[in-house]
Amino acid sequence: MGPVMQADPRVNRLKLYELRILLAVAHAGSMTRAATQLAISEPAISRAISDMERTLGVCLLDRNSKGVEPTAYGRALIKRGVAVFDELRQGINEIEFIKDPTIGEVRIGATSTIAEVGIIAAVIDQMCQKYPRVSFHVVAATPATLLQELRERNLDLIVLLTFDPITSDDIVSEMLYEDRLVVVAAAGNPCTRRHRVELADLVNENWTLPEPGHPVTSIVAKAFHALGLDAPRVTATAAPGRIRDNLLATGRFLTMVQESALHFGSLSSLKVLPVKLSMTGGTTRIMTLKKRALSPAAQLFIEHIREAAKPLAKRE
């Protein structure tokens, strides 16, 4: 063990319930609203904040006619306070897991991309059979929102399909596998009966693709432009989901998806057309917050998703 650091007496004077009150006030933007949420009186709220300010010798909140707003000092303490309560919650979860390894909670973030949804669903299904009392909360949002939620410790991890590198000093990013893009159709589509298909042969087919600007839609356009062709006319713009899947099931539509969608997702009955594509379909990654201890259940989820990704990671 290293030398024992001398305790700051101010730390001993700060109380956990005062820190909880500060977080509640900052979140509510008003002492009145915070008092209602915490079911305590407004004078008790004011007294707790004043005691903290007196202990630290700084002003934690700016008061105005609209309510309160944290000062720079307040924001610094709030940031650490969020971490304190998160670590306590993780500690309690770990104790519960030690008492009974079949219980726990995992909070996962993802977008609606089938490359993410498919592998997450597969892992949840597998873990539910082994650990029936572990609960899973999956949040769907944009990458920017997911990263913010991860930083605020509202999520344990993110499973994210990325087309461009995400570099950040506070995020740990681990690649599960590199995806490939493939052109697919239902078994009844005439294109699936051809032994050889060139991309140029598909320019006049019915395509269903996500909205303009979506990475997959942009990649399709670039692939055709590289051959000196206009991008195919998108007959039906539809995000990945039931509408797209129903259109494909008619046998009259094509689309482009990540190959992993055929491995994990609901599209396993589709046929891959023998079209040569040089571009990748991004990389699927696990992202966690650096220097944050994860609960045993979250660690188990990561172990299982690594195992589930191995067949795709080993592809040539």
Give an overview in words:
This protein has 316 residues and is of the alpha/beta class. The protein contains 11 helices and 11 strands. The chain has helices spanning 9-13, 16-28, 31-38, 42-56, 72-99, 114-130, 143-151, 215-225, 242-249, 260-264, 296-313; strands spanning 61-64, 67-70, 103-110, 133-140, 157-162, 171-185, 207-209, 234-237, 254-258, 271-272, 280-289. The strands form 3 sheets. Strands 3, 4, 5, 6, 9, 10 and 11 form a 7-stranded mixed sheet that branches. It has a two-stranded antiparallel sheet with strand order 1-2. Helix 2 packs across helix 3 (31-38), helix 3 crosses helix 4 and helix 6 (114-130) packs across helix 11. Mean pLDDT is 86; it is low at 1-5.
In a few lines, what is going on in this structure?
With 316 residues, the protein is of the alpha/beta class. It contains eleven helices and eleven strands.
Which features would summarize this protein structure in a list?
single chain, 316 residues, alpha/beta, seven-stranded mixed β-sheet, two-stranded antiparallel sheet, 11 helices, 22% strand, elongated
SSE topology:
Blueprint (H helix, E strand, L loop, with lengths): L8 H5 L2 H13 L2 H8 L3 H15 L4 E4 L2 E4 L1 H28 L3 E8 L3 H17 L2 E8 L2 H9 L5 E6 L8 E15 L21 E3 L5 H11 L8 E4 L4 H8 L4 E5 L1 H5 L6 E2 L7 E10 L6 H18 L3
Helix pairs in contact: 2-3, 2-4, 2-5, 3-4, 6-11
